[in-house]
Amino acid sequence: MTARAIATFAERAGRPLLMGRCWAVSSGHSLASWAGARVLERGGSAADAAVAVAAALNVVEPQMSGIGGDLFALVYEAGTSTVWAVNGTGPAPLDATPERFRDGIPERGPLAASVPAAARAWDLLVQRWGRLPLSITLAPAIELARDGFPVSHNLATYIETYADVLASYPETARTFLPTGSPPCPGDVLRQPDLARTLETVAAEGVNALYEGDLAERLTRAVLAAGGLLTRESLRLARATIVEPLQLAYRDWTICVPPPNSSAHTLLEMLGILQYFPLARWRPLSPELLHVMIEAKKLAFLDRERFTGDPDFVGPFPPDVLAPERLQRLAAAIDLTRAKPVLTTRPAREDHTTSFSVMDHEGNLVVVTASLNMAFGSAFIAGDTGILLNNRMTYWHLEPKHPNQLQPGKRVRHTLSPVLLTRPGERLGLGTPGSDAQVQILVHVLVHWLEYGFDLQTAIELPRWRHRGPGHESNWPHGSLDLVQVEGRLPNATIEGLQARGHRVERLARWGPIGSCQGIHWRDAERVVEAAADPRSDAYALAW
């Protein structure tokens, strides 16, 4: 794509769009990106490098994702020009029933943890698309955990913010508050227990986490602290390869994971937006953001109606994304007035990570991984070094809701990596942000596809996110109808949204709303572009 000369209308961080001709990595932390680069330079595939990045992020960005969480991935096979989705999300424990949580779902502690399946996805990625043994792929993460790494300003802020929560659990406090106080930027943080766990996985394989002595120690620690993760529940963890959902947008094919991901809302939003004259409106204009917000409301209503674990609620209805239905939804949007949020029933952000890797053969892997909220359950299981997720907070307790809690059922996820293809070209993109993920991705994609911004600029543009009553993922699922915007958004746009009836909250200039990473490849020139979000420690590399 050749970017047109368009004014940005907002301050930028000044990061360059990185370009190369062989490979690229873009992730939430520079050390994780370098871990992926090391594996690529040793002859690893994009899948090998993706696992290296995921494991390194577990160490250097521990508040976001890790072996105690889940992930979705999209894989582009250059040899077949095929896109596959990988579902690495775990189910509710076998003893997790609605009756057990009738008084509510705790935010923190071992009771908040569902079965982690990220490591199953690591194994599937390298078994299907990898070239290297785990001993090589996990080596950078093991080194970082064993020898330590300098704490970034971002991580130091997170630990300080959540210090009281982290101090509530002895192993967590020992790991992240080793002196009794939060570390300062530049202090070296070591995680020897996690290093030993990763060494075990590298030597014995991922099954060690689910079947061996490591599994016994993990479940013993969880059960002793009041959690529900038994050996039987842990054995339910699996990763599967599935066909992605697709939408034709202009001359692109847009691919996302199917449910239990709710990434279909991204396709629905873009499908609705196709019926509006986007090219007539200025970037970041109130007209543009208004229809995006209204499209989001409609897509999230469908999420509440239809989206859950397909093994329990059946396959996702294909007519939801039918062109004639999307056109009807577009026609229902009033260009002059915000409509109230509809819900099937009567907020908090999650903390996730996303990264993309492309190898020298043109294979592309996009991963979105998460513990849910910052530091997940905040519970490290004994001497394993594994920080467990708090994904149980995503369940609904209402009978007949498609996302109602049931033992052994996979919860509805917000993890929404996206991969675009057209002949000779492809783009992988992802972001953290809970329910904001698809909103951020649509915002970036529209400004990249429709207005010709380069990928780095599109990522840096000021963002918005809408919160809707009953439409938030974390229990009890929200009560606000509110549009949050980054402070760099033009005043005229904010005033235009308010004039249409939106309640708007202005955040700091850089939000933050998400942290988007992406890679774009063009066959004709054999040029790869990599972009990383300045809202976090994100860092891109290309060669």
Automatic annotation (TrEMBL):
**Under which EC number(s) is this enzyme classified?**
2.3.2.2, 3.4.19.13
Binding of L-glutamate, residues:
370-372, 434
Gene Ontology biological process terms in this record: glutathione biosynthetic process; glutathione catabolic process
Q: How is it modified after translation?
A: Cleaved by autocatalysis into a large and a small subunit.
> Which keywords describe this protein according to UniProt?
Acyltransferase, Glutathione biosynthesis, Hydrolase, Transferase, Zymogen
Query: Which Pfam families does the record associate with it?
Result: G_glu_transpept (PF01019)
Q: Which GO terms describe its molecular function?
A: glutathione hydrolase activity; leukotriene C4 gamma-glutamyl transferase activity
- Disulfide bond in keyword set: no
Q: What reaction gets catalysed by this protein?
A: an N-terminal (5-L-glutamyl)-[peptide] + an alpha-amino acid = 5-L-glutamyl amino acid + an N-terminal L-alpha-aminoacyl-[peptide]; glutathione + H2O = L-cysteinylglycine + L-glutamate; an S-substituted glutathione + H2O = an S-substituted L-cysteinylglycine + L-glutamate
What pathway or pathways are given for this protein in its record? Sulfur metabolism; glutathione metabolism
Instruction: Please give the superkingdom of this protein's source.
Output: Bacteria
- The entry's active site is 352
Q: Which family does it belong to?
A: Belongs to the gamma-glutamyltransferase family.
Binding partners and assembly: This enzyme consists of two polypeptide chains, which are synthesized in precursor form from a single polypeptide.
Would you tell me the protein name for this molecule? Glutathione hydrolase proenzyme
Organism, as annotated: Thermomicrobium roseum (strain ATCC 27502 / DSM 5159 / P-2)
